Amino acid sequence: MAVKSDREYRMIQLPDMQFRAAEEENYIVEGYATTYDDPYVLYEFEGQQYRERIDRDALLEADMRDVIFLYNHEGMVFARQSNGTLQLSSNDKGLYVRADLSSTEDSRRMYESIKAGLVTQMSWAFTVAEEDYDEKKKTRNIRKVKKVYDVSAVAIPANPNTDISARSYWDGVIEEERRRERERAEKVEEIRKLLKGASE
């Protein structure tokens, strides 16, 4: 997969985010690409967990024109919005995905893999327009998504540490936190020395 430097990919292993075959409807799969206001662990460094949270209103102004449905974010298109085989809707829970995989032999094979439980997880590709960071909770809050590129069925969850954009973000956060910790430690040491000198 050719990863765009600003494009982020998320596959969080939550029961709500599993793809499943819709009951009583041939070749329809559905599920949630992401959930809202539900922090998940995205990165871990030296025993410290860093989380991410998608704001409930993050997709209100997002460009979601002609999102496509893929497998592992690459290759053949199995469904897309422009021909009516892919529907996306944002509800109280998250970004709901419904795809009709009846169009081609390949898409029907993908449906059978999902129905059989061989492919169970969902991922999405997007870019961020607005975010902030809660240092106390170690949580990145994604306030606005700029664009959604695709939703994908995935067989093996991707390690978020290999996501170039996510890794770059968290490396920057950790570096800044360590810089501030060093500055605080230096100030404490200065005060300690001043107090020691004053008492002598």
Characterize the quaternary organization of these chains: single chain
Share in helix: 10-25%
Largest sheet: 7 strands, mixed
Number of helices in the DSSP assignment: 2
Strand percent estimate: 35-45%
Structural shape? elongated
Cα-to-Cα separation, first versus last residue: 66 Å
Question: Radius of gyration over alpha carbons?
Answer: 21 Å
What would you note in describing this structure?
The protein is an alpha+beta fold and 200 residues long. The protein has two helices and eleven strands; from the N terminus they run E-E-E-E-E-E-E-E-E-H-E-E-H. Strands 1, 4, 5, 6, 7, 10 and 11 form a seven-stranded mixed sheet that branches. The termini are far apart.
